[in-house]
């Protein structure tokens, strides 16, 4: 019944609202949307709980439906979903469905404790096991070869090869498996393996256009790789020949060399022959001229074995920092450290080749070091050097 209010004269309902509607009326819009999102039909984001840290019965029931039926039926259902994703080029989602299909085929045939382990498939006692096994084999082959395609598109080449191998264990005549494994091997530059896969596939289907194209691509890539490898070998052989020639040139001149673990970075400056393949051609050395008393230096990138130090000092002097003009051609002496730890004086007329060929000095880490001091301070510096060596 309805009653008339004295003020407005409008009839007001007297029956109470249904409980469900009354509950919704008391909620905010956000709370209503959150509640609807827990229902599988209205879900926009995955919510596996009932909002109170528990299970979502509706969602769990929907998940269970995916595992209703025989193993072949469950796997086929996942395979079909995978195929739909693959047609849309959704390779990650497609691969997940194929994963589930393969897992369903490997699921146990008896029902364990519901709280223990993944979903399982119940056995129908009236099932034709032989026919079911054929269906499972067919679906498994399709899932492996389709997952191989997903991995190929995702550039997971090794996984693609493994899936193709699994396919061929089921069906050794699957041409797609040979083709896709050949593509994956080619992408990894495994030319022999790619060639083998392509050859085996063409042996089964000689007119297969995709395999013929792959065969051409493999041949092209092989020619390129062989060319690169040939160039690399030639370069290494030439470098080895140059090193051998340089070593022969140094030995024939009696020049000793030594390498340490703390070699300086000389960039492209190096000991080399004028003609890298002729040991009798002129040698040049990187030379560091030190002015030890003043902690200064000059670097000569290519100092010929036929040059004297004074030949170079002639254009180096005067030194910009030598305000006292101590360093003049006729007013300096030069020394090199010997193998024994002493000093040898470098005469004005001595070529670098003669100094190094005396056997008393050695070229350390491809660098020659010569110390230059003024005559006025030479004896003092020599005494200090010997004192340091003695210590």
UniProtKB/TrEMBL annotation:
<protein>
    <submittedName>
        <fullName>TPR repeat protein-like protein</fullName>
    </submittedName>
</protein>
<dbReference type="GO" id="GO:0005829">
    <property type="term" value="C:cytosol"/>
</dbReference>
<feature type="compositionally biased region" description="Polar residues">
    <location>
        <begin position="1"/>
        <end position="14"/>
    </location>
</feature>
<comment type="similarity">
    <text>Belongs to the TTC4 family.</text>
</comment>
<dbReference type="GO" id="GO:0030544">
    <property type="term" value="F:Hsp70 protein binding"/>
</dbReference>
<dbReference type="Pfam" id="PF18972">
    <property type="entry name" value="Wheel"/>
</dbReference>
<keyword id="KW-0677">Repeat</keyword>
<keyword id="KW-0802">TPR repeat</keyword>
<feature type="region of interest" description="Disordered">
    <location>
        <begin position="1"/>
        <end position="21"/>
    </location>
</feature>
<dbReference type="InterPro" id="IPR011990">
    <property type="entry name" value="TPR-like_helical_dom_sf"/>
</dbReference>
<dbReference type="GO" id="GO:0006457">
    <property type="term" value="P:protein folding"/>
</dbReference>
<dbReference type="GO" id="GO:0051879">
    <property type="term" value="F:Hsp90 protein binding"/>
</dbReference>
<dbReference type="InterPro" id="IPR044059">
    <property type="entry name" value="Csn1/TTC4_wheel"/>
</dbReference>
<feature type="domain" description="Cns1/TTC4 wheel">
    <location>
        <begin position="277"/>
        <end position="385"/>
    </location>
</feature>
<dbReference type="InterPro" id="IPR019734">
    <property type="entry name" value="TPR_rpt"/>
</dbReference>
<dbReference type="GO" id="GO:0005634">
    <property type="term" value="C:nucleus"/>
</dbReference>
